[in-house]
Automatic annotation (TrEMBL):
<keyword id="KW-0663">Pyridoxal phosphate</keyword>
<dbReference type="InterPro" id="IPR011078">
    <property type="entry name" value="PyrdxlP_homeostasis"/>
</dbReference>
<dbReference type="Pfam" id="PF01168">
    <property type="entry name" value="Ala_racemase_N"/>
</dbReference>
<dbReference type="InterPro" id="IPR001608">
    <property type="entry name" value="Ala_racemase_N"/>
</dbReference>
<feature type="domain" description="Alanine racemase N-terminal">
    <location>
        <begin position="21"/>
        <end position="237"/>
    </location>
</feature>
<comment type="similarity">
    <text>Belongs to the pyridoxal phosphate-binding protein YggS/PROSC family.</text>
</comment>
<protein>
    <recommendedName>
        <fullName>Pyridoxal phosphate homeostasis protein</fullName>
    </recommendedName>
</protein>
<dbReference type="InterPro" id="IPR029066">
    <property type="entry name" value="PLP-binding_barrel"/>
</dbReference>
<feature type="modified residue" description="N6-(pyridoxal phosphate)lysine">
    <location>
        <position position="50"/>
    </location>
</feature>
<comment type="function">
    <text>Pyridoxal 5'-phosphate (PLP)-binding protein, which is involved in PLP homeostasis.</text>
</comment>
Length: 243
């Protein structure tokens, strides 16, 4: 972090850049919601801040965002602390959206308010054992069954959801997915929505559908997404000098 960031001084050019990007993303969300007959209030914007500095998170916080996502424990542990120093008391919820090793569960729970990538019963159990208090989770779903890319097979979603829901240390909030390669986003997100509709018969509080990113958020919103995860369209291609 540079001296200005440590002192809480905002890079004016970067603030203008992020403000413009945020306005554009919010306009896309609003237009997608209008086309789907939905209210923009139904769709949360989750800023994917992985590889970007805490100074950027501070600017986004100043612009009104409160939900941020990271995918690496070491980077997130450092960044959440830096953000707290830059914006003491600012409201912020941190989401783990990367693949999580079971032995890292306790460390991730030190900073994550929600873990969005629970894709197995073993990982769910590891998180439950590490939790000092109930923790919110999403089940990560693989639409095409390719577990190498992360996610639990969609056809077996009820079993994992039931397992999570039985744990007193876990709070099942919903599901998350990434549109697979070789399948149109609309087809993938429609399949997810159908599965979630059935899931809610047994788990009515599992209301979150985290689907859609910079390139396909419109398709996701059309298919019922309640949370879009946006990185590139919001923050651009600038990266940390050292991860």
């Amino acid at each position: 972090m540079n001296q200005d960031a440590r002192d809480g001084v905002v890079d004016v050019d970067r603030r203008e850049e992020l403000a413009l990007s945020l306005a554009e993303v919010r306009e896309r969300i609003a237009k997608a919601c209008a086309a789907a007959g939905r209210s923009p209030a139904e769709v949360e914007l989750l800023a994917v801040t992985k590889t970007f500095p805490a100074a950027d998170v501070a600017i986004l916080s100043d612009l009104g965002l409160t939900a941020f996502a990271e995918n690496r424990d070491q980077e997130a542990s450092r960044k959440t602390g830096e953000f707290a120093e830059l914006r003491p008391g600012a409201p912020a919820r941190w989401h783990m959206v990367g693949s999580l090793q079971r032995n890292k569960a306790k460390s991730v729970l030190r900073w994550a308010d929600r873990i969005d990538t629970v894709d197995s019963t073993r990982l769910a159990d590891a998180i439950a054992r590490a939790a000092a208090e109930p923790v919110e989770v999403l089940v990560q779903v693989s639409i095409d069954g390719d577990e190498s890319r992360g996610g639990h097979p969609i056809g077996d979603l009820p079993r994992l959801a039931d397992h999570v829901a039985r744990s007193s240390e876990l709070i099942l909030r919903g599901v998350m997915t990434v549109a697979p390669l070789g399948m149109s986003p609309q087809q993938a997100f429609a399949a997810l929505y159908e599965a979630v509709t059935r899931l809610r018969d047994d788990h009515p509080d599992a209301t979150v559908i985290s689907a859609g990113m910079s390139g396909d958020l419109e398709d996701a919103i059309a298919c019922g997404s309640t949370c879009v995860r946006v990185g590139t369209a919001l923050l651009g291609s600038r990266r940390l000098a050292s991860p």
